[in-house]
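ESCALATION

Customer reports they have been waiting on this structure for their group meeting. Please prioritize. Original submission:
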Amino acid sequence: MGGQKLSISPTVFSTAGTLIDSGTVISRLPPDAYSALQGAFSKLMSKYPQAPALSILDTCYDFSKYGTVTVPKISLLFSGGTELDLQLPGIFYVKDISQVCLAFAGNDDAGDVGILGNVQQLTFDVVYDINAGKLGFGPGGCV
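Update from on-call: job pushed to the front of the queue and completed.
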């Protein structure tokens, strides 16, 4: 977040596992991971007015009075060292300019499976090497 690694134990993702699902819109994170992400993001976005929650999205902003918005960099770090730098479409879910929400939600329970949803996959090609048990990301996905 913003160039700083958040203090999230990798074990929070192994309790129930995590899947990549192009059919799920919003990424769902284990409660501890979401809390760390949401807290750091909110701190870095504190100069912008908050907007009401939108369904499961509880971190929303009203950008209607701003011509330019500075958004912190969000990267996802996978085991094996792969780092996925999210582009702007992978950070926000936009209802309209007065309700722009962080495109992540927290699971209710640590035992709920984590999901990397399609909003975070938008600008990437996702490559699955099932035989080798590997996953890759490349530029050039749809927006």
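Sent to customer with the following note: The longest helix spans residues 31-44.
Escalation resolved.
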